[in-house]
């Protein structure tokens, strides 16, 4: 697989059968393993003196409580409530819709907003190409996975959307969120209404994925007060 920032090749594995043998085999061919889920790290591996096992903090998945995002109660969500209230007061006529992924008009709106989002953040042309390709791949999976796009419209214009995949066991996985952030409060409001929809479908938790070691992204994800992390690890051999 490739990492999500520099698109360098990384090597990992999943599963908990024969993990010591799998680790040894991979490390005989590669210098380091990364993004290895915590459940794949056996007790025996932790005791081995020939391995260095370190938390891969940049790739921990954030797990959020969807009920928290729906209620936004308590002092910890005070700033989010304020932003949501500001958006509602300024744009009472907005519409929230579950997007039809088979509609060409919907895709054109998603594409236009993604270009605008990239322009506002002064992104590179290569960034937008990667984003749109990833969105197209996700939409292509909607026939086999429960992919949910939630959009917010003002005057029939898409100003924000989120993408999530509904999984088993009360989980959803959040993938993308784009918005015209000239609308004050649009990002918190978008997450809030998405959480409402996912919660109505029976989801309890949102895997908000990793922060990739990016300071701004880490600060933003932490601001949603994760209830836990799905930890990932790096593994390599000690120098002889």
Automatic annotation (TrEMBL):
Gene3D superfamilies: 3.40.630.30
InterPro entries in alphabetical order: Acyl_CoA_acyltransferase (IPR016181), LPG_synthase_C (IPR024320), UCP018688 (IPR016732)
UniProt-recorded name of the protein: Phosphatidylglycerol lysyltransferase C-terminal domain-containing protein
Residue span(s) of domain Phosphatidylglycerol lysyltransferase C-terminal: 39-234
Coiled coil: none
């Amino acid at each position: 697989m490739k990492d999500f920032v520099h698109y360098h090749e990384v090597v990992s594995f999943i599963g908990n059968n024969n993990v010591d043998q799998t680790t040894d085999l991979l490390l005989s061919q590669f210098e380091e393993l990364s993004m290895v889920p915590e459940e794949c790290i056996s007790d025996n591996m932790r005791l081995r003196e020939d391995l260095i096992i370190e938390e891969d903090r940049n790739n921990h998945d954030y797990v959020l409580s969807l009920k928290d995002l729906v209620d936004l109660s308590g002092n910890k969500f005070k700033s989010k409530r304020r932003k949501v209230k500001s958006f509602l007061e300024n744009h009472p006529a907005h519409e929230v819709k579950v997007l039809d992924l088979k509609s060409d008009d919907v895709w054109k709106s998603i594409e236009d907003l993604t270009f605008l989002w990239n322009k506002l953040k002064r992104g590179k042309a290569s960034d937008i190409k990667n984003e749109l390709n990833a969105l197209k791949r996700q939409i292509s999976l909607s026939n086999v996975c429960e992919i949910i796009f939630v959009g917010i419209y003002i005057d029939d214009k898409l100003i924000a959307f989120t993408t999530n995949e509904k999984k088993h066991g009360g989980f959803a996985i959040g993938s993308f969120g784009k918005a015209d952030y000239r609308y004050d409060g649009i990002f918190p409001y978008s997450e809030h209404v998405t959480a409402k929809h996912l919660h109505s479908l029976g989801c309890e938790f949102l895997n908000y994925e990793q922060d990739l070691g990016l300071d701004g992204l880490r600060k933003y994800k932490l601001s949603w007060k994760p209830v836990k992390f799905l930890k990932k690890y790096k593994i390599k051999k000690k120098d002889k």
